[in-house]
Amino acid sequence: RRCTDIICCVIFIVVILGYIALGVVAWVHGDPRKVIYPTDSYGQFCGQRDTLNENKTILFYFNILKCASPAVLINLQCPTTQLCVSKCPDRFATYIDVQASYRYRPDQWNYFRQFCKPGFNNPRKSVAQVLRDEDCPSMIVPSRPFLKRCFPDFSTKNGVLTVANQTTFKDGRGKTRNVTDLREAANGINNVLDARSVGMKIFEDYAISWYWILIGLFIAMMLSLLFLVLLRFTAGVLFWIFIFGVIGIIGYGIWHCYWEYDHLKGIPGSDLTVYDIGFQTDFKVYLQLRQTWLAFMIILCGVEVIIILMLIFLRNRIRIAIALLKEGSRYVCLILELHLALPRAEDWVVTFLLIAICISYWAVTAVFLATSGEPVYKVMANQTLCKYANLTCDPETFNTTNVTKLCPGAQCTFAFYGGESLYHKYIFIFQLANAFVFLWLVNFAIALGQCTLAGAFASYYWAYRKPADIPLWPLFSSFGRAIRYHTGSLAFGALILAIVQLIRVILEYLDHKLKGTQNSFTKFLLCCLKCCFWCLEKFLKFINRNAYIMIAIYGKNFCTSAKEAFFLLMRNVVRVAVLDKVTDFLLFLGKILVAGGVGVLAFFFFTKRIPVFAQEVPMLNYYWVPLLTVIIGSYLVAHGFFSVYAMCVDTLFLCFCEDLERNDGSTAKPYFMSASLHRILGKKKLSPKKA
């Protein structure tokens, strides 16, 4: 062997180094606290340690009525002063009432001023000036924290929306308003809060049932392994039971259609044609026609004949497919016997760790890039005609400008995080690069796992004496060859796939952004593009998978391996189709059996229907939370095990096709296939293989 696709290998290493540099730059400029902590009007974080706001963890809005929706409050900027507070208001109050009573009710002023600007303690200042300068809010309403922000404490009483059991409140400007006026500013909060309550209950269920979930997943792992072992003996039985079951069901359908057709004979109106009655919204009308049942019977007869003919003409290829499935089970069992810690030693450990590292690095880099902006301050003016409104400003020099004179009450408040530097202008490009390299690395990790498994299974097939000539540690040997010689080829295949996946991501992003503004042609074009690139991605995954197998066998570069694998498959296209469908059916059946079996067991356990374990079942809010987790997790566990088995079968198939084309069973060119495959082909007795 020699190194393949060296140029791509060098580019891949350079990109990884650049990706590390991008992460370092993002780490230097980014600040995740901007995501964790809310920011007040002065650009300070609420709840940050070692600051004046350390004990003020919640963001309070002076006039929440100015905020259109929670999305504006969380993501954009609400045009009102925002302060960090230690707790949300728990009562209705207005500045006018508090100012009027502060002399004989100082406790009310002391409570109200904690929601005023820090340091403000002048209740004698006129109401007009206080509201103009926004020293204090004009009103406070009972609120509760959500997403570290104060929102009105909505509730429903007898079908009427209330806040603290009141339907009206004073707005602090001389008007009495209905609490429904707050609905616009906090639209959908009740639903979100209810969802949060459900989320807490779900979290509690996970906290007290996690070990039972792990036990269920362990049972699923054992069942998956048992199914793979039993496939060696039951693959043919399961397939033929299914085939004859389908033939029997279709046969019953033909008999039922004939019975209905004969039963309707002589009934008035049953001899009408579909053309005679035209289109009817009630489809039961068509079932009263003999012509309908005759058509059904003809269709089912055609399907039955096609299936029977396919079985007759493809019986040998079906037998080969079943034999390959049995051989795959034998190979997996052999790897177990060689103490390679399950057939996932590389794919579940190394591949999983690589993908986990890629996901973690991508997520951290994306967060740091998203928080790389500097605080941007803008002029917030109460007057709609102020020409300086929404212009950027500097809070340190704002009071020395003439903006406050031309626009009384105007303030320089924090708006968002951004910047005008070259780095900040290209953050979106950096995010795209981050996503692209992430896709490339994930696809490379998957390719490395597939090539490693293919090399291990191919070493078994091409061994003269099985298992004597198999390397002691076939998986580790194959992994070493893939890393040492074929990093460039694996990176090349992963690069092609990553480009297509990035295009699909961009198309989905455009579709989401343009939703609601698209015309019919744009929708049609985007739909066609998404469909085409989805098909292209599936095709490339198929080609890459078989190319990696050829790389593992012969050690050639990616393009040569992909070409040879493609033409080899095309020369055996019928066998490919039969093997693919037989394998898909049996493995899908295995996944359903594992997930369904463990799911039924979990259902009886969590609903306390197993008397022996009834006392061990934890008290749950929703028993379906651990149940669904066990079912979905069992399916994924089975999928993980069976993906190795599918890779084994695909590898054996390519080796089998190569064996048929390169060898003839003679002493000089003996077959490497097993005796069972040789018997199915109807060849002469296997020639003795050289030691």
Automatic annotation (TrEMBL):
This is Choline transporter-like protein. The chain crosses the membrane at residues 7-28, 210-230, 237-255, 293-314, 348-370, 435-463, 483-507, 585-606, 622-642. Belongs to the CTL (choline transporter-like) family. Pfam families: Choline_transpo (PF04515). Keywords: Antiport, Cell membrane, Glycoprotein, Membrane, Transmembrane, Transmembrane helix, Transport. Choline transporter. Choline/H+ antiporter. One of its GO terms (molecular function) is antiporter activity. It catalyses: choline(out) + n H(+)(in) = choline(in) + n H(+)(out). Signal peptide: none annotated. It is a multi-pass membrane protein. It is found in: Cell membrane. GO terms for cellular component: plasma membrane.
